């Protein structure tokens, strides 16, 4: 039997899973790390934490599994998108990574529009300038930390920094590179025009591959550290969302998924490139060669629930520890006791600004309709519902773009919650399914590795053999109109507060 490893460098932690060639989990290990928020709207992580977590989790799965290292045929890496890793000529990390949900780059987004023009940016990168994407972050460092910028020799995305550690290669692949805003997305190569306009040296960026291509092999030193063979192949892998698409079988038109991780993403595969001229959803290269995807993003999806847990659910944390169950499971049980609409309480999940559909880094979270009858349980349910309203906003944009979705999968930490899945089904008014494997991105990149290793001949063929549908949640007829009423009200709240968010940000 052949085996493959998938590494997913997420925001809350890095998870490594060892799969057999049929996609069954043999061993899995996650190590968490912090996100630093030095200022309101800033978000950073330490690349050393990612590297340590990858090394320790790979060592752990190999030790736990007892699988012989010769049978591990390949490694795929997935990761949070858009994060900026800057290295000097000796590969030293120059500053903490500014990650995807950081919102400090409003001035640089204006600068990008001034230099290149909004329409040109959309034509080349398939997206308007975005605060969380990598190009704006590079310009921010140039404008604000010239002493750091003067030492830059390499720029990598989070998972590509891990690739460098594994293989010594400076490389990336099309799905994650699409989120740097320096890629010519229709043509799947770096844009010389943009690099020259932003004065970014092309030699700083890695070579761009398709996601299932071999980008390098394990060095002798890393192989010894990890308990693997020197020369084991490392494929391109994918940004976490393109990876989750492969891991849930979303590799053909009509198929889509919703992931609730720290962020929330609604993702649909498209065999032809499809662009929202208003820039409300992103268009990126998919992990299947010569295909694309559209995705809408809620910045603070699982993050909202985690924020609520960490600040208001101390009792659940302690009880969960005593009972040996998951804290989120207890929170879901409490939220289930509250009716649809949270007793007339709405929540806007804009804790880290918002992308789809508002593209507003100044937006902030809101509880709307608080009354003295409300309890913590109502607020908890409102948080879950508010995130789901925001995900529905993404589906509305797809409908406007004529991107038709007939099959919706759910994944990510929040996708494991039956309550959250039933909210999705009610608000989308369609079936929401899960796949038997819960490993989303890690499985996706392990599948890419199995294609790179020649175990399967294509990504769709591998998905056909490996991905199995598990649970199906149908919409509840009585809930659909009730949620629709609240959703329509939810849609009115942001426009009414837009100017006030900007004013607050200016204080
Ligand atoms: N049982 C659950 N019920 C509801 N939400 C959950 C549950 N388990 C995890 N979550 C949510 O999933 C998030 C973590 O998802 P994950 O996919 O691991 O994140 P990331 O990819 O950002 O590291 C948590 O912040 C939490 O909001
Ligand atoms: O910014 C995006 C997609 O554009 C996020 O999806 C990040 O890629 C982070 O993902 P999680 O850590 O929440 O999975």
From TrEMBL:
Pfam families linked: FGGY_C (PF02782), FGGY_N (PF00370)
Marked site: Important for activity: 8
The record's section on InterPro entries has: ATPase_NBD, Carb_kinase_FGGY, Carb_kinase_FGGY_CS, FGGY_C, FGGY_Carb_Kinase, FGGY_N, Xylulokinase
* Domain of life of the native organism: Bacteria
Q: Look up the record and give one Gene Ontology term from the biological process aspect.
A: D-xylose metabolic process
The active site lies at 240
What residue stretches are annotated with the Carbohydrate kinase FGGY N-terminal domain? 3-247
Question: Carbohydrate kinase FGGY C-terminal domain: which residues?
Answer: 258-452
* Residue stretches in coiled coil: none
Tell me what reaction this enzyme catalyses: D-xylulose + ATP = D-xylulose 5-phosphate + ADP + H(+)
Q: Has keyword Transferase?
A: yes
Q: What does the record give as EC number?
A: 2.7.1.17
Q: What is this protein called in UniProt?
A: Xylulose kinase
- Function summary: Catalyzes the phosphorylation of D-xylulose to D-xylulose 5-phosphate.
Primary enzyme class: transferase
Instruction: Quote the PROSITE patterns the UniProt record gives.
Output: FGGY_KINASES_1 (PS00933), FGGY_KINASES_2 (PS00445)
Q: Would the keyword ATP-binding be found if you checked this record's keyword annotation?
A: yes
* Phylogenetic lineage: Bacteria, Bacillati, Bacillota, Clostridia, Eubacteriales
Q: Name one GO molecular function term.
A: ATP binding
Q: Which organism is it from?
A: Ruminococcus flavefaciens 007c
Keyword line: ATP-binding, Carbohydrate metabolism, Kinase, Nucleotide-binding, Transferase, Xylose metabolism
Gene3D superfamilies, alphabetically? 3.30.420.40
Q: Where does substrate bind?
A: 81-82
